[in-house]
Amino acid sequence: MSNYSEKPLIKHAKQLFAICRSLTGEGTRRTLSYFEEYHPEYIRLKFSTGTKVFDWEIPKEWNIKDAYLEHLDTGRRFAEFKKSNLHVVGYSAPVDAVMNLDELESRIYTQPDQPDWIPYVTSYYQEIWGFCIAENEKKNLPAGKYHVFIDSSLNEGNLELSHVLLRGKLRKEIFFSSYICHPSMANNELSGPIVLNAVLDYVKQVYPESKYSYRFVLLPETIGSISYLSLFANDMKQNVICGFNLSCVGDERAFSYVQSPEANTLADKALSTALKGRDNVKIYSYLERGSDERQYCSPGIDLPLCTFCRTKFGEYPEYHTSADDFSVVTENGLQGALSVLKLIIDAFETCLFPCCKFPCEPQLGKRGLYPNISQKSSNHPARARMDILAFSNGKNSIFDIAKLANLKLETVVHELKLLLNADLIVDSDDVNC
Amino acid sequence: MSNYSEKPLIKHAKQLFAICRSLTGEGTRRTLSYFEEYHPEYIRLKFSTGTKVFDWEIPKEWNIKDAYLEHLDTGRRFAEFKKSNLHVVGYSAPVDAVMNLDELESRIYTQPDQPDWIPYVTSYYQEIWGFCIAENEKKNLPAGKYHVFIDSSLNEGNLELSHVLLRGKLRKEIFFSSYICHPSMANNELSGPIVLNAVLDYVKQVYPESKYSYRFVLLPETIGSISYLSLFANDMKQNVICGFNLSCVGDERAFSYVQSPEANTLADKALSTALKGRDNVKIYSYLERGSDERQYCSPGIDLPLCTFCRTKFGEYPEYHTSADDFSVVTENGLQGALSVLKLIIDAFETCLFPCCKFPCEPQLGKRGLYPNISQKSSNHPARARMDILAFSNGKNSIFDIAKLANLKLETVVHELKLLLNADLIVDSDDVNC
Amino acid sequence: MSNYSEKPLIKHAKQLFAICRSLTGEGTRRTLSYFEEYHPEYIRLKFSTGTKVFDWEIPKEWNIKDAYLEHLDTGRRFAEFKKSNLHVVGYSAPVDAVMNLDELESRIYTQPDQPDWIPYVTSYYQEIWGFCIAENEKKNLPAGKYHVFIDSSLNEGNLELSHVLLRGKLRKEIFFSSYICHPSMANNELSGPIVLNAVLDYVKQVYPESKYSYRFVLLPETIGSISYLSLFANDMKQNVICGFNLSCVGDERAFSYVQSPEANTLADKALSTALKGRDNVKIYSYLERGSDERQYCSPGIDLPLCTFCRTKFGEYPEYHTSADDFSVVTENGLQGALSVLKLIIDAFETCLFPCCKFPCEPQLGKRGLYPNISQKSSNHPARARMDILAFSNGKNSIFDIAKLANLKLETVVHELKLLLNADLIVDSDDVNC
Q1: CATH code at position B380
Q2: Is residue C432 part of a domain?
């Protein structure tokens, strides 16, 4: 198997796009398998139908082969699953019946304010069936009788998810999560797993002997993260120092994140400094949450985590419709998200809590890190270096320092590498200083 | 005796208006007795003249029967106590003499910038006598000799106050204080005791088995609260978690409060969230204090208390003059203040520190508290509920949650009742969660 | 010896101006001796060449007798050390050679954006030689050969500094530092030592039995403070509660200071309240640092110190040029800086942590500190007094109180003296209250 990152990310996305994913079922399994082939470190976990996870219960496994509405008079088919898996309400029960358009109408979901797009609708916990079509298509459905057909099944089975823990020198973990429960939509949510696996690849390639441990998990939203936490919350509460839930990370329109409840974790600080200076950065309070940060940051779990997005779920028009496709998600968009996460990993692995080894300023001049001749000027060449040292007290994180010194995170990473090479600082995560 | 709240509050106020109250004396006793008839739980406390209370000493008891200035030539009387008890400087020593207008003038107090109103003047701790009249009346006093007559007495006696402690399941107390030392002025200060007794009535009627304990006290300002604290400060410092001093709570012009010194107590939070969305809300810093919060929040006492007002003392023109009457104070005004305090009591009694019983989000759908079908929309019907749960960590108070979730306190009380009924939360004041 | 303060400060400055100071050498010694004559309490400390101080090493001692450039054809001299000691790059190695203007040019430093002024240039840690002249003079240097002459020496010797610790009743120290390493520039940096010695004089005259201990130190910048800290950092970390580095305190243009890294020390609070209401106050963040606060506030040292300036170094055009002379520095300017520091010392010595001796408000009226007759008015005569008492909890410093009560520091000092005389407060630095 070649490296995951040898292929453009958009190619991975296009390969997986057509699969019908949901909380459970074959499509989700195939999606997990795809990533596991590139990263054999993944471990698959299964939760069988009926298992209690906190206040919830694992639902039946849903599988679907085909579905459509066939107008009996003309033989014309509508809402064909084979054309778009969004045409079926997620978790629809099977049906094979003939009914009048009148009877059928209450089972047809549209998004009237976006009349050309098929909406994404689910009913996981109440057994119904239904179809989703564009409002304009619904208006033109011919009157008369229809063969209503959904060839689905709801049976005892498993909810599945995959995770990997790359152990570093320290037990402290950086955590990445994304979800694999959405059918054919590109940004929400193929982009999350696509980028998460590129991050995993980056850590493996660049930091094979990493300082921190890295945890990656791919799961169905809500019930998946709740299931996962029912097993690992205690471990994670002890070890996770920073976490990112990835969602809608494939477009080029913005960079954004949803703050943790108190907006002051390492994850908040990492994202706010890593995004500094980029175009169109939007920061959302925890009140704007909506993805698995709802579970990871819930009372009693309290992980230090933010949800990272390009354009946040709910904030772009194509969200949760058939228009969320590769006109929204691009290679540039995916790479932009990846570059932010790589920078954050570089920051962690360089020196999380820099601590100057000397009281007072060290003598930079004798190390070639400071000009020897002193004359006033507006532009001090070693100013960033001096500012970083001035805050390197072993308590400020690299992200705090970037903020205090008003520097780009890239600059701080670069300067800290110089200072480490000159043996002027240590990481207080390595040693008490 | 009927319930206090069966009568309009304004009727109580009008019944008590004419009484001449001061720090001590018959008028004050009669006022206390009036409320004690409705609430036999009150206990009367007496501090006899000369008793030391912290840095102070209980003054003599002051009583007054009559007073006037009689122009000898014409027999016309001015500054008649029987027309307004404001005509006499509070705590005036007795006098019965004849003197020229010239001699008399330094004993006559007016409010020159409000020339039609009688000002309210006192001299509790320096024995003088004096009269108060409208500036315009003073200008027209005929020249010549006057019979100057004040039939008052300053004798050994008692300073009296009444308090009640309604014990709840917890020793933690909510504290209400107001004062009964002002003669005939309606807002400052009949409104305070009038509303305080309605709050007492509310707790008795609605929460006969309350969770929290409730302390109510009616006393003369400054020396009264100092006397009270000289006995109860230690108890109160241990038990009072939230207190309100009520002053000027009878007009319809504004809602306001004076913050505690650090502006971060439960009382500050309760008022700021309970007033949210009301018209004309004004928040004053502790530098704007002026009532008994001066004692309750003083260094060494440090109770978590705010002074609650409609329009704050000193901020309305009629303040401390004869114009502070029932053109200022109305039933609507009194009921508006009462409604705020009832809402705060409801909040305390519903769930002060909500704590979700499950890690992760509970499954609201299976309890009918969340829609089963998921489709994007701008208006999520369970959003407030979800937001409240997201902050229900057993450490945020109901008031913190209202602020964090940007919700009206009424909404939070309502939703928490639903969540309690669904057995999804507990109050961490009841149990550690 | 007369008192230091009997002479105008500007006279001291003018007497010292011509001396050629540097990190080491005779000029610096003479400058220290000048102050030691007025203040025999000073102790001279010497660090010999080659001594290790933290990450640094004491350099050779530099002395200079003469220097110039002589145009051989005409005999005209340029860059004459005897006319301005700024003409020689600080720490220049000796040279006695003949060279063409072409060869010479790279050794001539100018400030092209300020073409009429000689710039101040040093090269302490790389042995070079060089001359500094005005850009306009450089342009007019005649072509041809020059006798290049610097009669300097770089030998084993000492770095010297002087310090004094005036012991008060408490070991807690107020710390003042300034530097004596600049040649003929008036604001940066004769003004600092000139004012520091006036502060020392003030403490000796006005507070011969001071409550706090006072430490004063005169040293060469950077290497001097590092040397000093290598001996005293532990003592100072234990005892210094407030420190001021004095730099550029002689002009009349502004009052300013550089905040400590977290901007919340007693020094920050003292300066922000002492400067309140003065004209043209500028506060700089620690990112704008540049003087010995760089060492005193560095990680591992962490003294609670600010650098106090009139116009901050680097913020006035004459800075580090020959134009920094007595057109910049005036008696008024020096006295203005001194008055701020005197006020701060008065605040410390009056009552640093006022604590009211009584729970509740004390009865000010019986002590003549409060009007006995109470009538409403917009201007309460005892308002400041009451506000100060309201925050006198033994934890707020006098500077906190000035800020909380929105009062000038002068007012707070004055009122606290009244309250101390009335035996109403104690300093919790004297006794636990």
Answers
A1: 1.10.10
A2: no
Does B263 fall in a domain? yes
Mark whether B178 and B245 lie in a shared domain. yes
Distances in Å between the Cα of A338 and the Cα atoms of A4, A193, C176 are 13, 11, 51
Phi/psi for A41 (5° steps) reads -65, -20
Q: Phi-psi region for residue A145, left (φ > 0), alpha (ψ -120 to 50) or beta?
A: beta
| pLDDT tens per residue, range C350-400 | 999 999 999 999 999 999 999 888 888 766 779 999 999 999 999 999 999
Residue showing tokens 């890593």? A274
Residue B207 pLDDT exceeds 60: yes
The Cα angle at residue C99 between residues C97 and C100, in degrees rounded to 5 = 165
**Predicted structure pTM score:** 0.95
Q: What is C362-426 written as a DSSP string?
A: ---GGGTSS-SSB---S--TTHHHHHHHHT-BSSS-HHHHHHHTT--HHHHHHHHHHHHHTT-EE
The CA radius of gyration of chain B, in Å to the nearest whole number, is 25
In the block, residue with structure tokens 């050794």: C107
Distance CA B358, CA B355 (A): 9
Pick C295's closest partner by Cβ from A361, A374, A405. Answer: A361
**Residue C142 maps to a domain:** yes
- A281: containing domain: 4-59+159-349
**A166 backbone dihedrals φ, ψ, rounded to 5°:** -85, 115
Which chain A residues are within 8 Å of C121, Cβ to Cβ?
Answer: 373-375
Between C315 and C433, residue with greater pLDDT? C315
Q: C129, C155, C181: which is the final residue of a domain?
A: C155
**Confidence check: pLDDT of A373 > 90:** no
The number of folded domains in chain C is 3
Domain stop point among B296, B315, B349:
B349
* A to C CB pairs, distance under 8 Å: 85
Residue A392 lies in a domain: yes
CB contact set of B208 (below 8 Å; sequence gap of 6+):
none
* Residue A215, pLDDT score: 98
Segment holding A64, helix H or strand E: strand A61-71
The full 3-state SS of B190-251, as one line of letters, equals CHHHHHHHHHHHHHHHHCCCCCCEEEEEEECCCHHHHHHHHHHHHHHHHHEEEEEEECCCCC
pLDDT value at position B373?
85
Q: Are residues A181 and A41 in the same domain?
A: yes
Domain co-membership, B183 together with B239: yes
Mean pLDDT within C17-22? 97
Which member of C233, C299, C301 has the closest CB to residue A392?
Answer: C299
Question: Looking at the predicted structure, is the pLDDT value of residue B325 above 70?
Answer: yes
Residue with tokens 């039609």: B116
CA distance A195 to A4: 11
Please judge whether B298 and C391 are an interchain contact, meaning their C-beta atoms are less than 8 angstroms apart: no
* Distance to chain B for A236, nearest Cα, Å: 13
* Digit-coded pLDDT (tens) for C288-309: 999 999 999 999 999 999 999 9
Report the run of H or E that residue A284 belongs to, with start and end: strand A281-284
Q: Chains that contact C by 3+ CB pairs under 8 Å?
A: A, B
**In this predicted model, what pLDDT tens digit does every residue of A146-191 receive, in sequence order?**
999 999 999 999 999 999 999 999 999 999 999 999 999 999 989 9
Q: Would the ipTM clear 0.90, i.e. be above it?
A: yes
- For B107-136, how does the pLDDT look when each residue is reduced to its tens digit (9 = 90+)? 999 999 999 999 999 999 999 999 999 999
Q: Which residues contact C287 (CB under 8 A, 6 or more apart)?
A: A387, A404, A405, A406
Nearest by Cα to C285 from A402, A376, A404: A404
C223 to chain A, minimum CA–CA distance in Å? 10
* Helix pair angle (C409-421, C331-350), 10° resolution: 40
Q: Tell me whether residues C358 and B54 touch, CB distance under 8 A.
A: yes
CATH number at residue C269: 3.40.630.10
Q: What is the pLDDT of residues B211-224, one digit of tens each?
A: 999 999 999 999 99
